[in-house]
Amino acid sequence: MSHRRFFINPTDITGENVQMTGPEAHHLRTVLRLAPGDPITFFDGTGARYQARIERILKDRVTATIIEQSQDLPPKVHLHLGQALLKGHKMDLILQKATELGVDTIWPFSSEHGIHKPIKDAQMERWQRIVLEACKQCDRAKPPEINDTRKITDLMAHAPQCDTRLIFWEHEARQTLPEIFADQNTDCRSVFFLLGPEGGFSETEVACAQQEGFIPVSLGSRILRAETATLAATAILQFTLGNLNPTAQIKSGE
Ligand code: SAH
User: Fold this and answer.
1) Which of 223, 231, 234 has the most ligand 1 atoms within 8 A of CB, as the residue to mutate?
2) Same domain, yes or no, for 97 and 18?
3) What pLDDT score does 81 carry?
4) Among 71, 94, 121, which residue terminates a domain?
5) Which residue of 8, 107, 187, 236 could cross-link 82, Cys pair, CB 3.0 to 4.6 Å?
6) Ligand 1 atom at shortest distance from the alpha carbon of 221
7) Confidence (pLDDT) at 248
8) Distance between CA atoms of residues 142 and 79, nearest Å
9) Are 198 and 93 within one domain?
10) 114 is a domain residue
11) Quick one: pLDDT at residue 160?
């Protein structure tokens, strides 16, 4: 069985000793029922991965010894997802899958035909928990950064400077991803891509995005549900950019 994975704070590590407390320690003890001597993996949220061995399991904490440290290699191309707020639990699904698929940062936004409600702290905490759980499941050492929600116009004006900016638009009749990347002479190291809400982008938003250098791109003639479109766009982008090669994900030692 693969090692069980846990998140700790960098401050829980002193030299090769780890002191784990709180819900993760509770989970280890009462749900997983691990024992001293069992091998486990720790992430500290900064991108470091530690292989360790459990030493002691106490009521309020678990101690472990680090045996080896590794790091995920940075991706060949960094991916930044601008995602319109979606209804119900669809954002949860997107955050989980975007984490598994290797998106670096997530930028939720409100737009004309989408949700406008401000995001509460509890919602943000839930999203953070979802990406941490996804990291544990897929053995990703560094969780994606989730940015505060903003208006689409703000996001387009202040989006991180990336080599390529894309807006996935169901009314784009010509351009596909392979064509866009074939046209790019420059070595593309980062992509910012926007996905719209259930109601789609307005014509004004698409025009505004184009002014800000976003290239409209199609995922085919069928109109996909918002969450399908995001997952498909992310996977296709990662494949096109060469980020799904096993060698692009190798873990390096210290
Ligand atoms: N309400 C719209 C559909 C919106 S789909 C309508 O019925 O016409 C939600 C989002 O998914 C869109 O904003 C777009 O970003 C993406 N999307 C869905 N299908 C797509 C396609 N074929 N090509 C590119 N993007 C697509």
Assistant:
1) 223
2) no
3) 98
4) 71
5) 107
6) 22
7) 58
8) 14
9) yes
10) yes
11) 85
pLDDT value, residue 172: 92
Q: What is the pLDDT of residue 235?
A: 97
Question: Is 226 a pocket residue for ligand 1 (Cβ < 6 Å)?
Answer: yes
Which residue CA neighbors atom 16 of ligand 1 most closely?
Answer: 229
Positions of the chain with pLDDT lower than 50, given as ranges? none
Q: Answer yes or no: is 53 within a domain.
A: yes
Note down the domain range covering 10: 4-71
196 lines ligand 1 (CB under 6 A): yes
Whether residue 224 sits in one domain with residue 183: yes
Cα 196 to averaged position of ligand 1 atoms, centre (Å): 7
Is 35 a member of any domain?
yes
Judge if 30 and 117 occupy the same domain: no
194 belongs to a structural domain: yes
Show which of 53, 71, 89 is a domain's final residue. 71
97-137 confidence digits (pLDDT tens): 999 999 999 999 999 999 888 788 889 999 999 999 999 99
